[in-house]
């Protein structure tokens, strides 16, 4: 099958199955192109909850499909590549988190959505890179536990008066971006603005003109009159940045800004998933109920 034939067959089957195709901003270009909706992990989960369609095909990683299954339990949630996980989400276990809570009693646990359903179920409230500071400031507590990303945690700590205790997890893709790589890109493009995701290290964030989530980057690039941007996040974001801003230039400071898990999903996998209505992601009721409370507390806070 050619790519064009595959596109047509995916779209035909999506219609036949009453399926909504969601793609994260880090997915391969062709997956973003064939999807109904692209977005960040939270926005996609909200779309999953909102849609009238019966089937959700989640082109992303496992925790995202789980969030969709938590918020939309009556729908069939498919993850075309069941092996697409997130190393950062895997860095925290329920047992480890329980130990941390026992060591630091009374501190609310704020968990980044990039985490498993069982860890969310063990938390008081979730956050995303777009609302993390707001979520933490909304809490009636002087100290908080932040899980699992130490970089997002340090970014929050720099922007709140609360005392923050971090879990020492990190996103390998963002964490490996080196200060030297960014400095070199800035030296080569002195007229460019550097926008960085809070999953980058504090040393990288110190060099940024703007720190924001992936969705924040689309808004910043569109509204800012600058013509050149250095982009401190995963390479997949370039697809829509370039599509929406044909007159602007977007530069990746490193060739290593690629998340291998995000790149696993291919058109063949999406097609097969629609043909077989598998692999399906479900969350057991007792976990789902608790995790939903943590997610819904976050959703109650304005973005
Ligand atoms: P967002 O989807 O919240 O922008 O997160 C970035 C990320 O690393 C997702 O895996
Ligand atoms: Fe996980 Fe980082 Fe990949 Fe996102 S980019 S899925 S946080 S490893």
Automatic annotation (TrEMBL):
<feature type="binding site">
    <location>
        <begin position="112"/>
        <end position="114"/>
    </location>
    <ligand>
        <name>iminosuccinate</name>
    </ligand>
</feature>
<comment type="similarity">
    <text>Belongs to the quinolinate synthase family. Type 2 subfamily.</text>
</comment>
<keyword id="KW-0963">Cytoplasm</keyword>
<comment type="pathway">
    <text>Cofactor biosynthesis; NAD(+) biosynthesis; quinolinate from iminoaspartate: step 1/1.</text>
</comment>
<comment type="function">
    <text>Catalyzes the condensation of iminoaspartate with dihydroxyacetone phosphate to form quinolinate.</text>
</comment>
<feature type="binding site">
    <location>
        <begin position="197"/>
        <end position="199"/>
    </location>
    <ligand>
        <name>iminosuccinate</name>
    </ligand>
</feature>
<keyword id="KW-0479">Metal-binding</keyword>
<feature type="binding site">
    <location>
        <position position="259"/>
    </location>
    <ligand>
        <name>[4Fe-4S] cluster</name>
    </ligand>
</feature>
<feature type="binding site">
    <location>
        <position position="171"/>
    </location>
    <ligand>
        <name>[4Fe-4S] cluster</name>
    </ligand>
</feature>
<dbReference type="GO" id="GO:0008987">
    <property type="term" value="F:quinolinate synthetase A activity"/>
</dbReference>
<dbReference type="GO" id="GO:0051539">
    <property type="term" value="F:4 iron, 4 sulfur cluster binding"/>
</dbReference>
<dbReference type="GO" id="GO:0005829">
    <property type="term" value="C:cytosol"/>
</dbReference>
<dbReference type="InterPro" id="IPR023066">
    <property type="entry name" value="Quinolinate_synth_type2"/>
</dbReference>
<feature type="binding site">
    <location>
        <position position="41"/>
    </location>
    <ligand>
        <name>iminosuccinate</name>
    </ligand>
</feature>
<dbReference type="InterPro" id="IPR003473">
    <property type="entry name" value="NadA"/>
</dbReference>
<keyword id="KW-0004">4Fe-4S</keyword>
<dbReference type="GO" id="GO:0046872">
    <property type="term" value="F:metal ion binding"/>
</dbReference>
<protein>
    <recommendedName>
        <fullName>Quinolinate synthase</fullName>
        <ecNumber>2.5.1.72</ecNumber>
    </recommendedName>
</protein>
<feature type="binding site">
    <location>
        <position position="86"/>
    </location>
    <ligand>
        <name>[4Fe-4S] cluster</name>
    </ligand>
</feature>
<keyword id="KW-0408">Iron</keyword>
<keyword id="KW-0808">Transferase</keyword>
<feature type="binding site">
    <location>
        <position position="129"/>
    </location>
    <ligand>
        <name>iminosuccinate</name>
    </ligand>
</feature>
<keyword id="KW-0662">Pyridine nucleotide biosynthesis</keyword>
<dbReference type="GO" id="GO:0034628">
    <property type="term" value="P:'de novo' NAD+ biosynthetic process from L-aspartate"/>
</dbReference>
<feature type="binding site">
    <location>
        <position position="214"/>
    </location>
    <ligand>
        <name>iminosuccinate</name>
    </ligand>
</feature>
<dbReference type="Pfam" id="PF02445">
    <property type="entry name" value="NadA"/>
</dbReference>
<keyword id="KW-0411">Iron-sulfur</keyword>
<dbReference type="InterPro" id="IPR036094">
    <property type="entry name" value="NadA_sf"/>
</dbReference>
<feature type="binding site">
    <location>
        <position position="24"/>
    </location>
    <ligand>
        <name>iminosuccinate</name>
    </ligand>
</feature>
């Amino acid at each position: 099958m050619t790519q064009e034939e595959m596109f047509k067959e995916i779209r035909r089957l999506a219609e036949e199955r009453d399926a909504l195709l969601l793609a994260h901003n880090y997915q391969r270009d062709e997956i973003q192109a064939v999807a109904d909706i692209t977005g960040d992990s939270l926005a996609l989960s909200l779309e999953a909850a909102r849609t009238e369609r019966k089937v959700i095909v989640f082109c992303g990683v496992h925790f995202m499909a789980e969030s969709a299954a938590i918020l939309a339990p009556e729908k069939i949630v498919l993850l075309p590549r069941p092996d697409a996980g997130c190393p950062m989400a895997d860095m925290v276990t329920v047992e480890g988190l329980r130990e941390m809570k026992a060591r630091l009693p009374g501190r609310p646990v704020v968990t980044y959505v990039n985490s498993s359903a069982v860890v969310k179920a063990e938390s008081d409230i979730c956050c995303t890179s777009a609302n993390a500071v707001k979520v933490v400031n909304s809490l009636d507590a002087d100290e908080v536990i932040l899980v699992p990303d130490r970089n997002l945690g340090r970014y929050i700590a720099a922007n709140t008066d609360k005392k923050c205790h971090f879990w020492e997890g990190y996103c390998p893709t963002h964490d490996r971006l080196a200060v030297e790589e960014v400095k070199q890109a800035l030296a080569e493009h002195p007229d460019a603005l550097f926008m960085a995701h809070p999953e980058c290290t504090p040393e990288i964030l110190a060099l940024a003109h703007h720190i924001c989530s992936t969705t924040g980057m689309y808004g910043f690039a569109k509204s800012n009159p600058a013509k050149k941007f250095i982009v401190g996040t995963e390479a997949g974001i370039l697809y829509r940045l370039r599509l929406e801003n044909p007159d602007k230039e977007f530069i990746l400071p490193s060739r290593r800004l690629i998340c291998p898990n995000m790149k696993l999903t291919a058109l063949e996998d999406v097609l097969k998933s629609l043909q077989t209505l598998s692999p399906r992601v479900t969350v057991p009721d007792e976990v789902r109920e608790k995790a939903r409370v943590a997610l819904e507390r976050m959703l109650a806070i304005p973005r």
